[in-house]
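SAMPLE LOG
Freezer: B-3
Tube label: C17
Construct: single chain, 121 aa
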Amino acid sequence: MSTSSKFLQFFRCRNLDVKDHQARSVELAGRKLVANFSAPWSGPCRSIAPTYCELADKYPSFMFLTVDVDALAEFSTSWDINATPTFFFLKDGRQVDKFVGADKVELPKKIAAVANLASRF
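STRUCTURE (predicted):
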């Protein structure tokens, strides 16, 4: 199976209220994606959430998703999540970068760098 035909299940980051947070399939072909592996009980995850949503508004060409590591524990383990929040940056289904932590200064820098990198492809 090629990368372009693979599907991953995520919880959507925004535009859904709590009762609608259901696992969704997202095809990654041709997409730039930021996946935030997060836990609702985590202080750092709650702290970075507003910044993450601001970045989602700033970079509409990216798909911003949040994965609840408790609700999708097996899936999260398959991504080797050892701390939350952990952000993965993917282009065409391939990981191009990773960022661990809730640094409100560094996360926007990382996303800008990935956006610049992705625009060269």
